[in-house]
Request: fold
Amino acid sequence: MTSDAVSLTDAASVADAAAATAPFSVKIATRGEIAGCPAWAATFADQRKDHRYYEILEDTLRDTFEYRYFAIIDQAGCIQAVQPFFLLDQDILEGLGAKWQAWLARIRRFVPRFFKTRTLMVGCSAGEGHLAGSDTVPSGAMAEILCREIVNLARSCRAQLIVLKEFPACYRPVLDCFVRRGFARAPSMPMTALNLEHDDFDAYMQNALPRSARWQLRKKFKATDGETLALTVTDDARDVIDEIYPLYLQVFDRSKFRFEKLTADYFRRLGSDMKDKTLFFIWRRRERVVAFSLCMVEGDSLFWEYVGLDYAVALDLHLYYYTIRDMMNWAMANGYKRLRSTGLSYEPKFRMRHELDPIDLYARLRSALPNTIFRLLLPWIVPARYDKTLRRFANYRDLW
Reply:
């Protein structure tokens, strides 16, 4: 989160931000209209996913999403801040369990768009969302400007549903203005965080894990006794994209919950355009790539974004745990203090003593009367409510 947002976490500052919004208006812009704008070039500059990341997404993930930008305009007509958003057809009931999905499939044979609607999503199509504050439009002011205009902006885009996608919990005080204007807040599938302040992985196991967990991990690692898995860490994996991308697809196809499906060009562009914030961990067995992890760096945190595994050997060799051990050893040796991970695969993260790192959805229907029912319904249809493993984490209540 930016320092702007942190400085606006008390109610008085949020009120001051509301007063500062008067001189500004909002315009929906295309990327061509903001290209070369200093405000866009500075957007999210202190985060791992800066404006370049959003440009990569627009260029490489186009089949499902329509990308647009809210340009915050001052009275002189100059753009002072830019907030990315995108449009898509959203399945509102996607988070329900498998039993309900079977019933929905039957209904949709006759009513294909049952509970599917055109949606305006503020945030990132492949990652958590952030408010794009600037020196002249702090994050709190951005929130007030958008919540004041968002319904009319959605109408101009023909969107029936409005969502703020996966905003970290630290934004809750700033984004409370959306709740006051009819939005419901509910937890999305959370990220996780793990303390890396240990000498190495063995020290981490000894200091952080109970004896039973240490025994289970050592048993898994024995599966690779006699194996040689060579690790390469690079900021550019373009020369092995044809080897790592099929491994990503293997993991994607096995996932219970899906949102974005990345393309080979996405990985290729990260390696060419964002070397300063991107790391690829690549494992080879007998010269053949069997696993990779895409990580991004921000401050003293290593963010574990995506993984690819060759399931012909992954289960027998327990590659998931093997790759985690190597990444953690590398991160500790290079001074990183925390391993941050995207959602899902919570069972192994629970065993390894990750903490949940909550992220929230804010949503409302454009029409007021149906939204009254939707606000009550939303907390009951999000997947986080039905994931049994999440409830085992010590800070599960933080999600709500």
The longest helix spans residues 139-156. The CA atoms of residues 106 and 397 lie 35 Å apart.
